[in-house]
Amino acid sequence: MEIFPNPTRSHYIHDDLWCIVTSANQLPLCLACLVEHLEDESMTVVQKQFNLALLADTVKPECYEVAHLLREHPLVCQHILNIITDQYTDKSFQTVSVQICVQLMDTLQSEDLYVYLLNIFEHQVQNDHNAVPFVVAALGKLSVVSSAYVLTLILSHEHLLMSLLGTHAYRDSHEDDASDCSLLFLLIRLFDVDILPAVPPQAPPLVERCLVTCISSSQSVDLQTNALALLKRLASTECCLQEDSGSWAALLIWFKRVFVGKKEVLVTAAAQCLAIIASNPRHVNVVRLILDSDLPEFLFESLHTLNIAQLEAIFKCLELLAEHDLFFRKCHAVYGLESILRSLDVALDSHNVAVLVKGFTLLANILQRQPSGVPVCVNTSSTEMTLSVITKGAQCHALQVALPAITAATALLRDSSVVGHQPMKYLQSLVEAGLEKVGGAIWRGEAGSVLASLQVTEQQLLETLMDLLAAIIKLEIEEKDVLVTRVLEDCHNIISYVGDHFAACDRSTLGSVLHFLNSLYESQGRDRLQDLSERVVSCGFIVQLFITKSEFRSNLDLLSAAASFASNVFDVLVRENVPQCQSLPGPLKTGLRNLSFKGSIQQTVENIREEEAADALCMIFYFSCLNDAQIFSASHILYAVRDLHARQVLTCASHKPLTSRFLLYVLAWASTQSDTETDCTPEDSTVETAVMQQVSELPVEVWATPRPQLFLWLFHSPHRAQGPGAALLEHWLLHTKGNIPAADSNDSSQPHVMHTLLLGQHFTPVLLGLITSQSEEISMLAKKLFVRLISALEMQSDERQTAAQLIPSAYEGVMSVFQDLFINTLHQSRHVVKNILGVMTSLLHHPQYDHTDTDHNKQLRVIYHGVHFLSSTDEKDDDIIFSGITWLHALSKVTDEDQDKAIVPVLLQNSAFLEQLERCLQDENDQLSSAALSLVSWVTSACPDSSNSNSIRVSVEFIMNTLIRHTCENMEAALRMLHLALDSRCSGVSAPVTFHRCRAFHTAGSPFTAQELRLLFCHMQQYVCSENREVQFCAVQCYLKLIQHGLETDDNLGEHFLHHPWNSQLLYYLLSHSSTGGLHLHVAELITQIWCDEDEGNAEVAKLVLESVLANEISSDNQDVMMVLVQKAKPLCTDKDLLEKSICKLASLEDSLSFSQNTLTSS
pLDDT tens across 957-985, in order? Predict the structure, then answer.
């Protein structure tokens, strides 16, 4: 069998077990011959290389037969190692020789064999310096295979390791990069976690020196990568890097060369390495060397890339370097700001969240730590660019990007050197973005899962938002009001959120909130902060602040911020609610500072010993009740007031008018609440007596709080109503001009309180008393309030008394006041009479008024006084005359026939009053003339045949102008007067009205000329088509009267009216609007007059007539007219069924039976 390789001379003595067939090459191999060939120094280099390659293939781990054979013969293995290390260490054989050594170690896994190899290496290093590259290469490869080889090297051959380190640390010439790479592999392994404890302490300095030596003239990317990896290991350990100038000067130069080379892998690794150095506090001296150099500028320049890993590494490195003050003293931030902004701008377009987070975190840290004396933005362009990028980051959809961007914005805005350069468009966008992103995540809960993933709490978000808003508020720029307005819109959300999460809110966040709110109060006018202050009280925020004050007694800054905030809030509230106070008094500020809530309200009250604290507590009660805070119950408030007053801690005194104001309203509020356990106790009476006594000595504007609860309480008792109640109502009228308080809607338990007061027995007399006030303004305002309350009662209901009971009783009261006014005084104030007339008019107009509940005798006396007063009123007082006439007209709408017969003579007996009416009819004021006309119309209809000698003179021209110009609001009255005038055609008189003409003319039997009658006839056609049914019916009567009048005075005129061209259109209109609802009697009479047989389309008219007859209710009043219509329709109707139904309906009346039969027979 052929043996491979060629057998040696001694092959025949070799044992057969060395002849094997390897699984790798499937060839018979004599391992003994191969070893002998390797020992033969006479072979050529090519033959040696071939034999080495053959041995390398033979001792691979997968050649199990060879591995088993060598494991049983360790001496053979040692012999092979001797041959390799003795003859094959030159560069031409080094790669394969190292491979063989590594394979033998890895295949046999023998520690003894490895120690044997180390012995050889140590001997070679000591005796032959040229063997060092081979030894380093072999150990480097072995260190890659397993760290156990490195550990064994340290434990058993430390001298060998130190010799190698010393040789490379202080060598003069540069060896090949491959050898240096192997060395670096070995050195990297030294700093593994499980090996580092065994490394001798003198090794790290030599390792660092070796690193400098390896990279001093290296060009290989692999070598530089390994060098960076080794430097990372060195920096990560607890060993201090040597900061001697020589080593780090070379390293810094090499780092710059790496950054300038712009190889992304090397730049990323270098940045990571520098980040590790900067993060280790042991290397602070090295960091100082880095910052003293211009290396950070090379880092900034390397930001101009799209490589994500490189950007992340550089951002992280710069962030760590920026934690050192030297970074800013060397102005690195100023130099690198533009590079950061440009890289962030590019990253924003790519939407890479990870890079953006690191970039904006770096920017925020730089802006926060930048010294105030060194502006980071050197010009307007730089400022605008910074704001632009930060704004884009704040608007980013990812909250983890927006958060550091907002932090960066806050830091930038705190720099006073850039305040004047901030464009408003960026500031507005920043405010919107901050409130939208952070605010949305907090009180709208839009980013709960994001917060969890970011490990960010809502309080941290709130603190970030507060810092931004505080920086915005402190800016001294134009148009800041726009920003402040937007901030104030969300302050309510901030207050509500903190109030709802007060217990979970940490002190840092609470401090940020308070500092922001205090800056808001300090920079803004008090008028802009009223709503915010009320919200602070109503949501319970201020009370919770007092409750937690005891928890941060040790935090003086927070305690001071809380005291300042409380003073600011109540200063605004006092200014806005107490006009006499320009600021919060000093004693109340002291009380707020000393007051704290402990446990229950009982414990809090018992711990109050100072008068100032008691006054402050009363003030808190006052504004809590005023803003419907629902924090304190009525029973708790009453208990506190009783206890403090009993212990004389809370007193009413002349030098404390505010306390009297607070106490009065607090008592009123607590006494009117449904949860008050007891109506009144002796202690309450004592407190009330003291308060009322003090109130009586103070001006009303000092103690008056015009809110519904105080009104209810004061008017609940007669002695309170006549004294403070009347004063409060008068004060309120003067300051609110009679408008119902908006506070009605604030108290859900007492809706429409002012309306409820009107139903009480003590309120109406006081209000009527104010109407009779000699002050014209107070009287007018009281009347205005009375009228508004009466009109509002249409939609209200009351448990004690319904509106139907109230209105008549109120009217009786007003009549009594009016009557007393004329009985008790000789000269009545005109404004009082006018206002009372207005109140009575509004009561008469109320739908719940019932005349049957009125004392008619008293009413007649009131009418007599009113008419007498109006008759003596000067012409200049048209408003009073108008009020009186309006009242009389409203009265005419609610009286019955018997009352009319009693009232009208009272009017007609006063000739001076009738003259006033005549003058009013001719007045240029259309409202006054219309009201007078309506009253005259009622008088004529209520008493048409009065025998009274006095009569009202009405000019025909006035009636003509009114109907033609449509100047009268009550056209129904004008039409009735026309009908009456036409009816007086012969005598010219129809008591109690006399019609006359301003200019006489000679026409017998008519007050109108023919031309006027024709004009009236045309206008009546328009009124007949009115949508108002009353106006239409009155116009129809006038239309009929005009036809009758024309026929009686002038046949030609009458025929003209009967055959007027417009009659056919009018006929169609009346029938089309009556075919479903039926015909009114006067409308039917008009149709019989104007329906002519020769009209075209009579068949259609006949059909409409019969449909209208069917829609009508037939009675004795209209049966004759209906019969006439059916007779006229019979010959023209083509629908026999419709005709038969109409005739049958008329036949239902017994009196028309013969007519029906004749009609049916003829048809």
Answer: 787 787 777 766 678 787 787 777 777 64
Coil, strand, or helix at residue 678? coil
Residue for token pair 């009985």: 823
Tokens of 1153: 């039976």
pLDDT, tens digit, 9 for 90 and up, residues 481-501:
777 888 888 888 888 877 777
Show contacts of 807-811: CB within 8 Å, 24+ apart: 807/843, 807/846, 807/848, 807/849, 807/850, 808/849, 808/850, 808/853, 808/854, 809/853, 810/758, 810/764, 810/843, 811/840, 811/843, 811/844, 811/849, 811/854
Residue 667 is predicted with a pLDDT of 86
1162 has a pLDDT exceeding 60: no
**Which pLDDT does position 1152 carry in this prediction?**
46
Sequence length of the chain is 1163
If you average pLDDT over every residue of the chain, what do you get? 77
Q: Find where tokens 């009569």 sit.
A: 951
Query: How does residue 750 score in pLDDT terms, banded at 50, 70 and 90?
Result: very low
Q: Which two tokens stand for residue 298?
A: 């090379």
C-alpha to C-alpha distance for 275 and 321, rounded to whole angstroms: 8
> And the tokens for 1152?
């028309």
Which amino acid is located at 600 in the chain? S
616: number of CA atoms within 13 Å, CB side?
A: 31
Q: What is the pLDDT of residue 240?
A: 53
> Strand pairing partners for 952?
993
The Cα–Cα gap between 86 and 84 comes to: 6
Evaluate whether 234 touches 204 at the Cβ level (below 8 Å): yes
Predicted confidence at residue 449, as pLDDT, reads: 56
Is the Cβ–Cβ distance between 477 and 420 less than 8 Å?
yes
Question: In the chain, what is the straight-line distance between the N-terminal and C-terminal CA atoms, in Å?
Answer: 148
Question: Across the chain, how many H-helices and E-strands are there?
Answer: 61, 5
**Tell me, what DSSP letter sits at residue 365?**
H
Residue type, 852: T
Degrees, nearest 5: CA angle 924-929-930? 130
DSSP state, residue 846 = S
Q: Count CB atoms within 10 A of the CB of residue 1041.
A: 18
| Strands of 479-624, DSSP E | none
**Six-digit token pair at 19?**
């002849």
Kindly give, in sequence order, each residue whose CB lies less than 8 Å from that of residue 883, ignoring residues fewer than 6 positions away: 834, 837, 838, 841
**CA diameter of the chain:** 177
Other Cβ atoms closer than 10 A to 413: 24
* Per-residue pLDDT tens digits for 567-612: 988 888 888 888 778 788 888 888 888 888 877 788 888 888 888 8
pLDDT of residue 784: 86
The H or E element that residue 284 is part of is helix 284-292
Whole-number pLDDT of residue 942: 73
Question: What pLDDT, on a 0 to 100 scale, did the predictor assign at position 800?
Answer: 41
User: Tell me, what's the pLDDT at 416?
Assistant: 56
At a CB cut-off of 8 Å and minimum separation 6, what does 1047 contact?
1053, 1054, 1055, 1057, 1058
Per-residue pLDDT, 1093: 57
The three-state DSSP-derived secondary structure of 247-261 is HHHHHHHHHHHHHHH
SS3 for 660? helix
CA dihedral 1025, 1030, 1031, 1037 (to 10 degrees): 90
Q: What does the H/E/C string look like for 463-492? A: HHHHHHHHHHHCCCCCCHHHHHHHHHHHHH
Nearest Cα residue to 233 out of 355, 102, 143: 143
